[in-house]
């Protein structure tokens, strides 16, 4: 067990800061072994503070103090107290501003947690959100303290020719032959979590953007020289994002310079530091032969996301970390809108919902469930969750639905006008939308405060005599940790009705007619009635997935097949196919569990044949319609998860469809298989997606011709999408050339770290037997490095989170392996370690034997002597 139980921080305990820091001057003598930090802070008492302390308490961790002075006078040792997490200066001036000077040292090379200042490959960089600044120097490291920064960096010229920080470069020069210096100034006040510095041997790829009002902005992407040829897409994405934000939200960039730096070692995707974004290389670098179509899309999305933070996060920031979704939920919503506008709206929405339902719904239903705005945490880094991000984005999307695009924009305008330069709360955001629209969101607010996924139970009754349809909707929400009872939510439910021939039936509601309406579900039970229906219509409910809820409605296979053919709502059309497949798969699972023979209903085959034969203008969408629900999504729908039955039933469906529709799959494969590498137009991406899903079905037949098809594609591919798609099908089959293909891929790409990550992940996620042995040997591969988060995620993360059959092996070897790795990572990088624990958190969902085995490993983790707060919080809450 840990030395002392870690403290919980509560939202209800928030108090304004006792002191404010107007300006910050930082001076770094950079060196990877020992960096000297000199900080000069102009402080004064905060008139809003309720406390009367004469003392000043600053946060700081893992720092060596060199000297301390107030207004030029050094402090004696009895004038302050130092402990592991803070510096307490017993008495500071109360009635005037004063200057505090701190000198301390830090060791970047020893920093394996990748928080604060650290070394990544040969470069020095920082990560300060949420509380990394306190690992650089003592500070009021909280987001409601906003200051203006001036930063001087000095370092060896040969190792660190490029020296960057936030804002604009205002001066620089040589110190002597070997060292040089640069000074940066950021005119915008910001919280410490947005501070950044970078030093290294970097090359800049430059461009410019002219804003709506005619200002010229210099754009620079900094990478190591061997990556200069992989920045074009990121640069284009940045320019697209800047234009989009001007057009959609009327928001213009504010500094004269926008810099992005790509680093190899990063705990997450990217970071929106003011004017100096730091990115995981994974979300910057792309060349047609090294990155897949999905990589290209993710890069555009993440570049957009960080750029959009400049307004939703930086100019207006969070008062405290409980408000994280204020910036993250809103910014995810904005990046989703941006990506939807840039590509296919239908496909983007489906992909987002798919991810939400598979992963966030599981979080909401498990021991780590928390509201979009949490009320307590032990380690804030554990709250960068799917709930805060993805469900937070759904909540903003519902506000957008309720207000309509114009009302939403009006509300946002007011939010920006009111709060620019401030650190605010989620209430402030909702309140601005309410005020601008004279709306009342008091019940809607529950989406921020109540955890858990609401369930809608819907029954329909058609009254032929009165030509009316009655829809009764009951809502409920399961208990979550600390919240036994839930009040009814305000849920926008979009509805359409279909006539016999598939056309829209007019919806007569409250004496008005339209083709689509949004119902306001606000009570525990409500009945909605629709008039003038000569025949019973087919109901299309929750169109566009208008609320993050679980919809339960008895539907026949025939109705689902009908909606799959005719629904004009692209989301619901896809959803009907998924529901159809789910029903079929669960029937098969029942048969398997009762040891009955399996048979595939012709209805599903016909439905899939129709999709294959219909004409689609959006081939990515057609590919999505053909995709079977993921095993992890199916698992979430099961009372007691049976990983083996899910896998077997789903495979049976895949193989049966391939057998019965082989000619169709082959026809489309041949039609769309062509070399158009380097073409990233939506239609070319669509052709690749459709062809590759056909290949995926075909290879399941395990015939020599289809094996050859995959191998031919693998060796001849001129782009990573096709090469990976072929290799993935090979790795996931008993293809005789599997080992040879994997070897050849490794040798081809051994110098491209991001491609080698794919190589690791591909093998770690194979559902073939023997995968565990492969994973163990990959752990010993010379290219594996436990200190590189991308590699850890590619091997340990992929195996434990995306390989249900093998990770959940009955003998528990997967669980013991994961716990071993969590403990190793705990000592190196607690943030990454705690992310890996997720693989065990859902233990209650499995059969009794597996429950015992998973629980044992969680207990083993919790009883480790030097457990970090991060891992302790996740493991202990999982056990609770
Ligand atoms: N704001 C950062 C996340 C920081 C995570 C700290 N553990 C990236 C983003 O959401 O844009
Ligand atoms: Zn973000």
Mean pLDDT, all residues: 98
Name given to the CATH architecture of the domain at 9-201: Sandwich
CATH fold title of the domain at 9-201: Immunoglobulin-like
| Ligands, deduplicated | (3S)-3,7-diaminoheptanoic acid, zinc ion
Strand order of the largest sheet: 6-5-9-3-2-12-15-14
| Separation of the first and last Cα atoms | 15 Å
Using the alpha-carbon principal axes, give the shape.
globular
Instruction: Tell me the fraction of residues in β-strands, as a range.
Output: 15-25%
Topology:
Elements: E1 9-10, E2 19-29, E3 35-45, E4 56-59, E5 64-70, E6 73-74, E7 80-82, E8 86-89, E9 98-106, E10 116-120, E11 123-127, E12 147-156, E13 162-165, E14 168-174, E15 179-190, E16 197-200, E17 203-210, E18 216-223, H1 232-249, E19 257-263, E20 270-271, E21 276-280, H2 293-308, E22 317-318, H3 324-342, H4 345-364, E23 376-377, H5 386-419, E24 423-424, H6 426-437, H7 446-449, E25 455-463, E26 468-476, E27 491-498, E28 507-509, E29 512-514, E30 517-521, E31 525-530, E32 538-541, E33 550-553, H8 557-566, H9 570-593, H10 602-613, H11 619-626, H12 631-636, H13 643-660, H14 662-672, H15 682-699, H16 704-716, H17 720-731, H18 738-749, H19 753-764, H20 771-779, H21 789-802, H22 804-807, H23 813-828, H24 830-841, H25 848-862, H26 869-879
Parallel strand pairs: 2-12, 18-19, 19-21, 22-24, 25-33
Antiparallel strand pairs: 1-23, 2-3, 3-9, 4-8, 5-6, 5-9, 7-8, 10-11, 11-16, 12-15, 13-16, 14-15, 17-18, 20-21, 25-26, 26-31, 27-30, 27-32, 28-29
Function: Aminopeptidase N is involved in the degradation of intracellular peptides generated by protein breakdown during normal growth as well as in response to nutrient starvation.
Domain Peptidase M1 alanyl aminopeptidase C-terminal: 558-880
InterPro entries: Aminopeptidase_N-like_N, Aminopeptidase_N-like_N_sf, PepN_Ig-like_sf, Peptidase_M1, Peptidase_M1_dom, Peptidase_M1_pepN, Peptidase_M1_pepN_C, Peptidase_M1_pepN_C_sf
């Amino acid at each position: 067990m840990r030395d002392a139980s870690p403290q919980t921080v509560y939202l209800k305990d928030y108090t304004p800061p006792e002191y404010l820091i107007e300006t910050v001057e930082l001076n770094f003598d950079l060196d990877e072994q020992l960096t000297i930090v000199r900080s000069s802070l102009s402080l004064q008492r905060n008139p809003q503070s309720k406390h009367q302390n004469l003392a000043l308490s600053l946060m700081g961790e893992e720092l060596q103090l060199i000297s301390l002075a107030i207004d030029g006078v050094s402090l004696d040792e009895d004038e302050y107290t130092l402990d592991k997490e803070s510096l307490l200066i017993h008495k500071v001036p109360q009635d005037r501003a004063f200057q505090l000077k701190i000198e301390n040292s830090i060791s970047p090379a020893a920093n394996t947690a990748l928080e604060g200042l650290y070394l990544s490959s040969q470069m020095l960089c920082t990560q300060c959100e949420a509380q990394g600044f306190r690992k650089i120097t003592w500070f009021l490291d909280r987001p409601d303290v906003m200051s203006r920064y001036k930063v001087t960096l000095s370092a060896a010229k040969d190792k660190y020719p490029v020296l960057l920080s936030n804002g604009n470069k205002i001066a620089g020069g040589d110190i002597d032959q070997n060292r040089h210096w640069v000074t940066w100034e950021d005119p915008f006040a910001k919280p410490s979590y947005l501070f950044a510095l970078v030093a290294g041997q970097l090359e800049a790829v430059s461009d410019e953007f002219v804003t709506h009002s005619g200002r010229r902005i210099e754009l620079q992407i900094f990478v190591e020289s061997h990556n200069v040829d992989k920045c074009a897409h990121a640069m284009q994405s940045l320019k697209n994002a800047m234009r989009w934000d001007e057009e959609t939200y009327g928001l213009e960039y504010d500094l004269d310079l926008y810099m992005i730096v790509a680093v190899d070692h990063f705990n997450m995707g990217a970071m929106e530091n003011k004017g100096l974004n730091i990115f995981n290389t994974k979300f910057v670098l792309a060349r047609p032969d090294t990155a897949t179509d999905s990589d290209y899309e993710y890069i555009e999305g993440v570049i957009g996301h960080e750029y959009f933070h400049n307004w939703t996060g930086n100019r207006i920031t969070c008062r405290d970390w409980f408000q994280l979704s204020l910036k993250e939920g809103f910014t995810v919503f904005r990046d989703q809108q941006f990506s939807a506008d840039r590509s296919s709206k239908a496909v983007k929405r489906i992909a987002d919902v798919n991810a939400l339902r598979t992963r966030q719904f599981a979080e909401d239903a498990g021991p780590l469930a928390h509201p979009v705005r949490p009320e307590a945490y032990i380690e804030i880094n554990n709250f960068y969750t799917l709930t805060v991000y993805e469900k937070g984005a759904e909540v903003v999307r519902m506000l957008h639905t309720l207000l309509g695009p114009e009302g939403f924009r009006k509300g946002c305008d007011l939010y920006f006008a009111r709060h620019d330069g401030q650190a605010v709360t989620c209430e402030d955001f909702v309140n601005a939308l309410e005020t601008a629209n004279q709306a009342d969101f008091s019940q809607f607010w529950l989406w921020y405060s109540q955890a858990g996924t609401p369930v809608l139970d819907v029954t329909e009754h058609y009254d032929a005599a009165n030509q009316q349809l009655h829809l009764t909707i009951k809502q409920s929400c399961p208990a979550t940790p600390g919240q036994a009872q839930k009040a009814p939510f305000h849920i926008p439910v979009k509805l359409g009705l279909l006539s016999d021939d598939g056309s829209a039936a007019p919806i007569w509601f409250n004496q008005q007619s339209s083709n689509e309406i949004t119902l306001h579900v606000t009570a525990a039970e409500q009945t909605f009635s629709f008039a003038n229906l000569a025949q019973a219509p087919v109901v299309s409910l929750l169109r566009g997935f208008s609320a993050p809820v679980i919809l339960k409605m008895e539907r026949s296979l025939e109705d689902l097949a009908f909606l799959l053919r005719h629904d004009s709502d692209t989301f619901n059309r896809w959803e009907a196919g998924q529901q159809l497949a789910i029903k079929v798969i669960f029937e098969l699972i029942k048969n398997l569990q009762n040891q009955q023979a399996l048979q595939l209903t012709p209805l599903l085959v016909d439905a899939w044949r129709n999709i294959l034969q219909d004409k689609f203008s959006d081939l990515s969408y057609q590919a999505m319609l053909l995709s079977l629900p993921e095993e992890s999504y199916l698992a979430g729908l099961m009372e007691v998860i049976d990983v083996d039955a899910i896998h077997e039933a789903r495979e049976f469906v895949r193989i049966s469809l391939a057998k019965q529709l082989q000619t169709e799959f082959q026809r489309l494969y041949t039609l769309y298989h062509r070399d158009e590498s380097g073409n990233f137009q939506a239609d070319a991406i669509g052709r690749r997606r459709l062809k590759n899903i056909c290949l995926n079905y075909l290879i399941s037949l395990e015939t020599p011709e289809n094996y050859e098809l995959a191998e031919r594609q693998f060796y001849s591919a001129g782009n990573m999408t096709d090469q990976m798609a072929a290799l993935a099908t090979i790795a996931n089959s008993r293809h005789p050339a599997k080992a040879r293909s994997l070897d050849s891929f490794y040798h081809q790409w051994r110098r491209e770290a991001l491609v080698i990550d794919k190589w690791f992940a591909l093998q770690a996620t194979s559902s073939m037997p023997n995968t565990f042995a492969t994973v163990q040997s990959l752990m010993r591969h010379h290219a594996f490095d436990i200190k590189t988060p991308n590699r850890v995620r590619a091997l340990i993360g992929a195996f434990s989170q995306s390989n249900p059959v093998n990770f959940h092996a009955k003998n528990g070897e997967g669980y013991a392996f994961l716990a071993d790795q969590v403990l190793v990572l705990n000592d190196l990088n607690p943030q990454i370690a705690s992310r890996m624990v997720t693989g065990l958190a859902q233990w209650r969902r499995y059969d009794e034997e597996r429950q015992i085995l998973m629980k044992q490993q969680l207990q083993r983790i919790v009883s480790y002597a030097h457990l970090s707060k991060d891992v302790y919080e996740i493991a202990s809450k999982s056990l609770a």
